[in-house]
């Protein structure tokens, strides 16, 4: 049996949120093909990049990606943060590099609507670009410097505590252990050690009395939630709080901030974005935007994010 693909989904086995989108696409009768990068060796593929046309075979089923393709849902970053270390075999290195390149080759389907296009994801994942664009559209942005110089006195410090962050998402491996970097609140003097010269970090004005907001944008639609614990804001990085202690509540953004969110996503060339904001000192502050950010934990009857994504993917060009 052969299927003519209308929506191409490029993701991974662990992307459980996209399972919801797949169910919505099935309910709508939209023909889609989901390719999980871990399972690619199990599929026989052939790509003609000029036509362009992609054929995928698995057992007695065939999927053809061609003129009928409406959209592509790209659920991966463009920076390889999964540091393998020196233990990867030659076979592992071969498969990883060549399948990554093959997935990027789907950019040959340039007439499809991408959520989001790789070139836009690459740019939007760069924190310096995010901060500059957020300031341009009118958000308040914490005073920031990216540095490896322990001898400077960052404007963000000014005698106050600072937020220390990585320049990019920090994911490291130490043998069997996987290490992730979170935001730390500290005095600049505690961070300004000689070892800092080895790699830069981000120093920001610390927002100590804050309420975190997550804004999910799908084209012109958006949903905003506040993230609290015990009815109050969470100091530091809320991701370090146990999930059963988090309080996720719908929050109404001002029209001005909602428009800024839409403008920011559009200015970065995105159709989807997960934006982190913070309310502090009577202002709304921009923290970051993730062009492939998680949203499944927010999907609900009052926040039908999966349905909105499926609707956007299904729309004819």
From TrEMBL:
Biological process, per Gene Ontology: SOS response
Gene3D superfamilies assigned: ATP-grasp fold, B domain
GO cellular component: cytoplasm
Domain of life of the native organism: Bacteria
GO MF terms, alphabetically ordered: ribosomal S6-glutamic acid ligase activity
Record protein name field: Uncharacterized protein
Organism encoding this protein: Sphingomonas mucosissima
């Amino acid at each position: 049996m052969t299927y003519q693909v209308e929506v191409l989904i490029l993701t991974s086995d662990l992307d459980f949120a996209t399972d919801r989108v797949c169910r919505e696409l099935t309910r709508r009768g939209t023909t889609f093909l989901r390719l999980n990068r871990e399972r690619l060796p199990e599929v026989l593929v052939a790509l003609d990049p000029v036509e362009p046309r992609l054929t995928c075979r698995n057992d007695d089923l065939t999927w053809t990606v061609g003129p009928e393709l409406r959209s592509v849902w790209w659920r991966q970053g463009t920076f390889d943060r999964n540091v393998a270390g020196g233990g990867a075999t030659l076979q592992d290195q071969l498969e990883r590099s060549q399948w990554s390149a093959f997935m990027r080759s789907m950019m040959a389907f340039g007439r499809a609507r991408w959520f989001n296009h790789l070139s836009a994801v690459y740019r939007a994942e760069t924190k310096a670009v995010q901060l500059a664009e957020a300031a341009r559209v009118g958000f308040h942005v914490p005073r920031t410097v990216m540095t490896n110089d322990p001898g400077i006195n960052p404007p963000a410090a000014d005698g106050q505590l600072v937020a220390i962050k990585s320049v990019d998402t920090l994911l490291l491996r130490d043998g069997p252990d996987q290490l992730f970097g979170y935001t730390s609140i500290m005095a600049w003097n505690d961070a300004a050690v000689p070892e800092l010269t080895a790699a830069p970090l981000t120093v920001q004005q610390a927002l100590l009395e804050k309420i975190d907001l997550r804004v999910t944008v799908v084209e012109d639609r958006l949903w905003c939630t506040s993230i609290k614990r015990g009815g109050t804001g969470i100091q530091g990085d809320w991701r370090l709080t146990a999930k059963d202690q988090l309080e996720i509540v719908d929050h109404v953004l001002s029209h001005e901030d909602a428009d800024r969110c839409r403008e920011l996503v559009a200015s970065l060339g995105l159709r989807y974005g997960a934006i982190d904001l913070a309310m502090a000192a009577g202002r709304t502050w921009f923290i970051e935007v993730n062009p492939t950010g998680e949203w499944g934990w927010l999907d609900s009857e009052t926040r039908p994010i999966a349905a909105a994504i499926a609707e956007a993917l299904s729309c004819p060009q």
